[in-house]
Amino acid sequence: MVGQRAQHQPVSLLLLIRLCLLHLRASGQPHPTLDSPAEEVVSVQGVRGSSVELACSSGPAPLLVLWSFTPLGSLVPRPVAITDGAMSKVEAVASALGVVSLRNSSLVLGELREGARGHFLCQVLHVASGQLYTTYSHLMLAVLVPVSKPQVRLSNPSPVEGASVVATCAVREGTEPVTFAWQHRATRGLGEALVGVTEPLFQLDPVNRTHLGWYMCSARNSVNRLSSEGAFLDVIYGPDKPVITVEPLGLTEEGFWASEKEEVTLSCLAASNPPSHYVWLRDHTQVRTGPTYVITRAGRAHTGLYTCLARNSYLDTRTQTTIQLTIYYPPEGQPSCAVLPGPGAVTLLCTWPGGLPPAQLQWEGPQGPGPTAPSNITWSHAATQLPSGSVFTCTGQHPALAPSALCTVTLWEPLGRPTCWSTATMGDQFIMLSCEWPGGEPPATLGWLDEQQQPLGGSSSSMAVHLLQAQEDLAGQEFTCRGTHLLRTPDPHCHLRLEAPQLDVAEPRVSVFEGGEVWLECSLRQGTPPAQLLWLGPQQQQVEPGTLGFMLHPERTQLRLGIRDADPTRHRGTYQCVARNAVGNSSRSVLLEVLRYPAPPNVTIRRLTYGRHRREVQLQWAIAGPGNLTGFLVQRKASALGPGAGAWEIAASDIEPESRGRRLGGLDPGVLYAFRILALNHHTAGHPSEVKIPADPPFSAYPAVLGAAGTGMVVATVASLLVFQYAARHPETFPRLETPTTTPGLDPAQETTDAPVNVTITVTATP
Which domains, from first to last, does the chain contain? Predict the structure, then answer.
């Protein structure tokens, strides 16, 4: 059998066919070719270190493919690889090109090397119309080298301002042309492209302090683009003349001032690189080194001359600046206002002694500003010129104070009328009646009266308070607060009636769908003293702020109860809004109904099959019957015995209502799973579908077997013809070859010979 003998000497056939091709090329006689006579050279580019595939136009069913390589500058081709479809051989010298392999008739060069530059020739032997043909493919491979990571070199990394600096962008290798770009980034700021600088070097002449910072360059060719690390250019300069600032800022004709007892910061800045070294002098005596001098608590002794000395240690240069600092302090306390009554007149007195400089005082009244003077000032008015409500203000201003200090004298009766209100003490044990009538000079007098207008306790100025023992019989009783003032007739008063609370609810019956949100509203119609509002749940337990699933929103006389994610088992029932104060209580009920969404339609599984390697399944389903739905829920469980068997778990829950299929992954091939699906209408789930186990997908190998058999017959016939044709033309190659005796009933391809030529035929069929 040919297939059996082909297993003994597979290399001899490759050598035989290779000699045949070389003979055909060397004989000088014309041979039929499919693509004759033009042999175009195809240009191919590859990147060093990567992979490139050289395609050979082999035509249909090549019998043999031979690749050769001619380096640049050489005329001698070198064999690279050969294949007959069943087996292939790569020459050892091909390792200089990279990692060489064959993919069908194409030559694949992995980890491409620069030595692969040159001419590649592909020779293909095949049969067409019963004749032997040879085709050739010429390819010119250019190997591109990526540009290496550039490096920035500075001729002088630390130049003195005014010198010259050359920056160079160095690249070790890379296929030309290589283009360059430069970028400059200051020590504080974003990078800035240097427009117009495209050469590998540029010059800064003269260099100045604005050139200080990081310099980066990038190199780019047709393969890649790389950027360098930053090189720092440290420009040496300074120091400039120091600038002294004082915080907080206060300016005088002589210099600066600061307030007593506050923190004063003197800052000195002299532009310099490296940074300046600073020394502070006060009245020619050194007090501090460093850029800032902080006076933690300024005192009067800190007044004087302050000098900042700046020095550049690298250049050994110095500069200095001197300022005058004066410490201000205000008078003690506040201005003092007083009214000195006299016969037919009123004298206003304002004093505020001390301070540096002295405080400036000024009176102001209803008719406008009054006199002004430092430290002490008086102002007199006739009594007939002062109507009730006259206000006089003395304002004291000092540089060390902001805002200004002042005192006020008001000659008027209290505004409006007394104001009454009531509050309950802790635990509603007592009721506190309060009455207020602020203002007035002198202050008003207030007192409480009962329903019989009898005094309750004594009187007090501006505000009156009376305590009552809390009891229910106080509901409906009225109390009066009366106020008296010498500039006011008749006496004003206010009334206060104690009342039990009264409630209103927005709706006595409220409904909500399951999972929704609803608000129950309750408002206080009346109640004195102010009542406390609260909600009781269906189990008569008070709903506290922060209770899970509930929200309390108080607003003035209202208390709203919010319920989120409504659940029939937890939230359905009667809620009570309760109001309580020291004289009584009241309540109103609200019935909450939690409705379920209608049941969605039923679902049936139409198809459930395993996917690749049994790690996923393809699920298809259909719905039956009317009904609303918002999605689907797929569940799975391990149907085999073992831990977790029989427990349903969610396989997919985010399925749109329009979907009728889903691919489910994450399966263990060693576990047998069962699946079911349910339709969802919001929080209402439909009846589960029938439980199904995935089935294996159908498989058919008939087309693959038929195709492989047909291909094998064609290849075997062509190979046999090649061998006998070569033996007939070159009998000297086989001197002991004799004509064998044909056995009746045997195929000629199965006849035995004394010197057999083994042929190995490998057939690969793709269904």
Answer: 42-144 (2.60.40.10), 151-233 (2.60.40.10), 243-328 (2.60.40.10), 336-411 (2.60.40.10), 419-498 (2.60.40.10), 502-595 (2.60.40.10), 603-688 (2.60.40.10)
